[in-house]
Write a structure and sequence with these properties.
The protein starts with a helix and ends with a helix. The chain has one domain: Alpha-Beta Complex (Inosine-uridine Nucleoside N-ribohydrolase, Chain A), CATH 3.90.245.10. It has eleven helices and 13 strands. The strands form four sheets. A seven-stranded mixed sheet has the order 2-1-3-4-7-13-10, sandwiched between helices. Strands 5-6 form a two-stranded antiparallel sheet. Helix content is 37%, strand content 20%. Helix 5 crosses helix 7. It is α/β, with parallel strands linked by helices. The N terminus is likely disordered. The radius of gyration is 18 Å and the shape is globular. Strand 1, helix 2 and strand 2 form a beta-alpha-beta unit.
Length: 321
């Protein structure tokens, strides 16, 4: 697909879908500027979430940044594997030349005060400053939030200019708990974000996004044989070792994108941030003046319907990507 056909398809989608913003905007007729930060080579749901954001008329995706997935302060190659997948996906969508996709950090932060500089962090900083007071940048972390925290530490002046959203650490029955994977891969970055004053949305993985499931039958029905990015998503399911041959898949990251896009499909509460000591130790502080927004429940079936409605419209808009 070329850029012109993709933009035309988004116009069709915009006419067919109701607009809804997870992030309130002072400019309701303008799309929210969004960066998706993802460790895509570690799983398959990242790519599905990225595509969902790219076909949303409510969003103007101004960056797809790559994240590592190693619990190490030593440089490692995982971020490069995610970067390669992002480039392949954007190629399939005809967007490699128009959607920036800078490389992210290749390691975890050594402590909550020391950032890892990277093109991705610098890109977030530049985009934050490019917006006005009614045009905050939304950055969603689908993997370890190293790039988000590092951007904030490298330039604290962006704090009022960004909204961060992250998926992992748990929240159930009014209590915070440790996360499963992203949380542990850079707990210092998680701490830096919670200890900041940045506008923050949290999607618990273990208790909430685990409910967001797609089936291979639906993937085949909606995407298989459609070419380009659509078959790329099918191939990813069929060739990734943990999903090959499996009939169902938890789409953790899709839940976050859907919750931010469709506020009516998620129950959110504003609560006191926890005090995070380490990857396993989380202290409850309900009266903490540092307030954050948590998704404590989702309408998983509604999210799946919305996901397929959006992708069906995109497929109809350009059947030969």
């Amino acid at each position: 697909m070329n850029r012109r056909s993709f933009v035309a398809a988004l116009t069709v989608i915009g006419l067919g879908l109701g607009l809804g913003f997870g992030v309130p905007s002072a400019r309701p007729d303008e799309p929210v500027r969004v960066v998706i930060d993802a460790d895509s080579a570690n799983e398959i749901d990242d790519l599905y979430a990225i595509v969902r954001a790219l076909v949303a008329p409510e969003y103007k995706v101004v960056g797809v940044t790559s994240a590592h997935w190693m619990r190490s302060t030593e440089p490692n190659a995982t971020v490069h594997r995610s970067q390669e997948l992002h480039e392949r996906l954007l190629d399939r969508m005809g967007l490699r030349e128009t959607v920036p996709h800078p490389l992210g950090a290749d390691r975890s932060m050594p402590d909550p005060a020391t950032p890892i500089d990277s093109p991705a962090a610098r890109h977030i900083i530049a985009l934050a400053h490019a917006g006005g007071p009614d045009d905050k940048l939304l950055v969603m972390a689908l993997g370890a939030p190293t790039n988000l925290a590092s951007a904030l530490l490298l330039d604290p002046s962006i704090e009022p200019k960004v909204t961060f959203a992250f998926i992992d650490g748990d929240y159930k029955n009014g209590r915070w708990g440790p996360g499963i994977f992203n949380w542990k891969n850079d707990i210092h970055a998680v701490r830096a974000i919670f200890e900041s004053k940045v506008d923050y949305f949290h999607m618990p993985a273990k208790s909430v996004s685990v409910e967001m499931v797609l089936t291979k039958q639906d993937v085949d029905e909606h995407l298989k044989g459609r070419g380009g990015a659509w078959d790329f998503l099918v191939e990813r399911w069929e060739t990734f070792p943990r999903t090959a041959g499996k009939p169902r898949k938890v789409m953790w990251d899709v839940a976050l994108v859907e919750a931010m896009l469709r506020p009516d499909l998620a129950t959110r509460v504003v609560v006191g941030a926890p005090i995070i000591r380490d990857a396993e130790t989380v202290e409850q502080h309900p009266d903490n003046p540092r307030r954050v927004t948590v998704f404590e429940a989702i309408d998983a079936e509604g999210m799946a319907r919305d996901f397929w409605k959006a992708l069906d419209a995109a497929v109809a808009g350009h059947r030969s990507p």
